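2 proteins. here.
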Amino acid sequence: MTAYAAFSSRAFRYQLTAVTLSMFSQQMLSTVVGWDLYLATRSPVVLGNVGLVQIIPVLLFTFAAGHVADRYPRRQTSMLMQVAQTVVGIALALAAGRGLGVALIYTCLFLVATARAFQWPATSAMLPQTVAPEHLTNAISWSGSARELATVGGPALAGILIATWGSEAVYIVQAACCALSAGCFYLMHIPGAATQMRPETGLKAVAEGLRFVWREKVILSALSLDLLAVFFGGATALLPIFAEDILHTGATGLGWLRAAPAIGAGLMAVAIAHRPSIRNAGIVLLISVAAFGAATIGFAFSTVAWLSFAMLFLTGAFDSISVVLRISLVQSRTPDELRGRVSAVNGLFISASNQWGAVESGLAAKWMGTVPSVAFGGAATIVVVVLIGIWSATLRRWKN
């Protein structure tokens, strides 16, 4: 198998483009709202509450979204959710000229998070349908690379646009990316999509994904590791404070700080795509998450821009290893009729770690100070790795 085997599938190429554009728009939106909110309020709690606003739709709709992904055409669901995000982006662009209040930004973020809650399981469950089984890990690696490439470009471009033309330009470009992503989903043709099984309705069917994850202890351990590590170790929500008050790099510097983890993650994902599968996957997963925590501590204490960038670069590289291993584990061990619901559970773990982690970062920064809170989070991540490594023998023994 070549490093580019997944690209032989037309459906995969369209999905890869659609997901990349979607992630590009997501990162641009996260960067611009964080900047607008901090300049308007100078409050780390307001920044942290961005995560709270975005986790509520995930908690409300995750299991229903997984059921929708298994019961209805996944391509159409993904397309409609991108159309909805396009509309929200246009509304933000129109309102930006008259000034964006905290309430309006929170409302729009809630709507976007709702759309993403439904899109994530549909898009994730589609991936194994676009490539042959033997190319799945390769497709996951390239998908990770493309998403991280977008995560590099999104914040960097957002920072440049903010500095040059203001926030309104970012919202316009973000909406355009969503519209193009919807077009790519529209043009996709998924082999075998017409035979997608439709599960029974009812609460039992909706919750089947959660029961499956609970039964598969190695999946549960891997998801729990990611949930707790990112909850404590994420510093993204506080980057506007580092850019403005600690490193003094302004909006452009903020864009590059947000892009640094993505550069590291993208390069690491490309490296993984060009090498054979990782054999001792469980041990490698634990080591990579511990290294993520150590790099977070290094970032917390850095007072120069280049070192901060380097530490964030390393957090992205180590996180990319865990992401590729975790997604490969979930996709390879889940039957197709459950992929939407299991992907929804996976998405719940990811969103909970990212968004609740943002809330935790904001509150911890208020109580402890910005630098101590980030350093504490990195140390807590390492403790989590040790505890889960001791508790989960199945994870330690997992071979990819």
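next one coming up
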Amino acid sequence: MLRRCIPRILWITFPVLALFGSTAKGADSSIAQRIQRGESFLVGLFDNSLQLLPEYKGSATYWLFHDNYLAAHLLANSRSDLSERIRSSLAKFGVTNSGKIEIVFDEAKKPLPFRTYVLTNVALVEGKTIRTELVTTNLLAGWEQYADLLLLASVAQVRSAPADARRNFDKASAMWDAEGFNDPASRHGGRFATYKLALYLIAANRLGISPPHRVEVIERLLAMQTPDGGWITDYKEGKPLGLANVETTCLALLALKTLGEGPYGR
């Protein structure tokens, strides 16, 4: 997962054009339908009692950051009512920032240098645990080894240091091994993380480039969407591992929404 701890649908190979349709109209329709399904998945998880989304269906853990922060953003247009209720809950629990995930929406005040993060309990409500990620003051050593952090750094540097942004993107891109981003986290867990596929597309969009592994990454990302609209967290040898959860689904949706944007587009 994107939270910096030990990283917690059958694979079907389709040509991207077959998935999107052979025309721009077909492509837009296919992506729009996938986005709608993904948003419906998030809406279906909404807990009216806590005004938050659990980590995944049936979970008793509710992450303020990253999950609900991301969900508030991704539902802002289609379900502004739920988005506002989530934001109100974040404020109620006194957690309105994390320091890292906000990079994807250009809302991180001091995103770099990366610092270590702690995962902490915020409250226990009716047997449900409210948790969040918080930034510390300690510098994070060795972050350049991880594809996700390289991609986040790239997004953070687009305006202030474009050459460094491209350099970090290229370092992450070099970790691609034809199935996923092979970094220490992937090797430790023996699996590839779906959210890194999404971050790759998001970072490429911010840089305004057509990335070298774009077609393969899109195919793998689309293949990890479940029938109910969510995105599976991990995969190995073409097979999904884990459950569809909020964080992965939100980042996948954000990536899909960038596909028709920017100079490289479709």
